[in-house]
Write a structure and sequence with these properties.
A six-stranded mixed sheet has the order 1-3-2-6-5-4, with helices on both faces. Helix content is 61%, strand content 14%. Strand 2 and strand 3 (89-95) form a beta hairpin. It contains 13 helices and six strands. The protein folds into two domains: 12-216, GAF domain (Beta-Lactamase, 2-Layer Sandwich); 219-273, Arc Repressor Mutant, subunit A, CATH 1.10.10. It has helices spanning 18-34, 39-49, 56-73, 98-110, 114-121, 129-135, 137-145, 178-190, 192-199, 204-216, 219-232, 236-250, 254-273; strands at residues 12-13, 79-86, 89-95, 125-128, 150-157, 162-170. The two termini are 32 Å apart. The model has no long low-confidence stretch (mean pLDDT 83). It is an alpha+beta fold and 274 residues long.
């Protein structure tokens, strides 16, 4: 991680199996081109592929998937991330690379920028470096130092709340166009029902705090997933499903299941090494 700034330090890497990511990216593009697949239909497919959204961990897994899908669906995206901006809290939940975290930090420090504007106005923001310099000179200067010349951000929202934004950074000038904006809008609109189900009857502050707390205690789950992937030769989705199934069958919290698994496998590896 780039630093211990709480706004980015716990951010998760974007994650989806290569096959699922490519298939979903193709589906999003097809939906935008042919207009035969509605956002609601696409959302049902995405949520189905990522399990139902019952808690913060399911939501984070979905955000990891969507971030990776957007990164693959839009060719100009060199860095991609998800910003959470509600309840007085702003932080990065998911990222594809360290550059995403550095640029996000500069935006949060400046207090404005394309991602925050998308979240706070519920509009898609598509700008290049010159337009960004006029609108947000402090942020644009810092982004330019990171080699970023193009920006595309779309709000993540439900009827009741706006969660934040899905953000793409490009190193080329005019890296994004209107079609890219349409693809990203289709993808974020597809998530609206899942976000609404998760956030219903909860205040914005409660949602923001619960997601951030889940991020900060996610390490055992990610570690356990990695171990299961190596042992059973499965992808990240299948590893998470194994953990979730064990949690449900034993009525033990997911984090405790993951921590116990890591401890058991580590102890076994130590014995084998001895």
């Amino acid at each position: 991680m780039v630093n211990d700034d709480r706004r980015v330090a716990s951010s998760l890497p974007a994650s989806a199996s290569v096959q699922d990511s490519e298939a979903a990216a193709d589906l999003v593009i097809q939906a935008a081109v042919e207009e035969k697949i509605t956002p609601a239909m696409l959302g049902a497919m995405l949520v189905s592929a990522s399990r139902s959204i019952t808690d913060e961990d399911d939501l984070l897994t979905l955000l990891q998937h969507v971030c990776e899908i957007a990164h693959g669906a839009i060719p100009g995206a060199d860095s991609t991330g998800v910003t959470i901006d509600l309840g007085g809290r702003t932080y990065t939940a998911v990222h594809t690379d360290e550059r995403t975290l550095r640029v996000d930090t500069e935006q949060y420090d400046a207090g404005d920028g394309p991602c925050l504007q998308a979240a706070r106005t519920r509009t898609v923001v598509l700008v290049d470096s010159d337009e960004a310099a006029e609108a947000w000179p402090r942020f644009a200067s810092a982004a330019r130092d990171e080699g970023i010349a193009s920006f595309l951000a779309a709000p993540l929202y439900s009827e009741e709340q706006t969660l934040g934004s899905l953000n793409l950074y490009g190193r080329s000038h005019s890296a994004f166009d209107g079609f890219d904006a349409e693809v990203l809008s289709m993808l974020t609109a597809a998530m609206s029902r899942a976000l609404g189900d998760f956030a219903r009857f909860r205040s914005a502050r409660d949602v923001a705090i619960s997601i951030q707390r889940a991020l900060e205690t996610r390490a055992p789950i990610e570690q356990a997933k990695g171990m299961l992937m190596a042992i059973h030769r499965v992808d990240a989705d299948e590893a998470f499903t194994m953990l979730r199934t064990q949690s449900q069958h034993t009525n033990v919290p997911l984090r405790d299941v993951a921590a116990n698994l890591v401890e058991q496998i580590s102890a076994r590896q130590d014995l084998d090494a001895g």
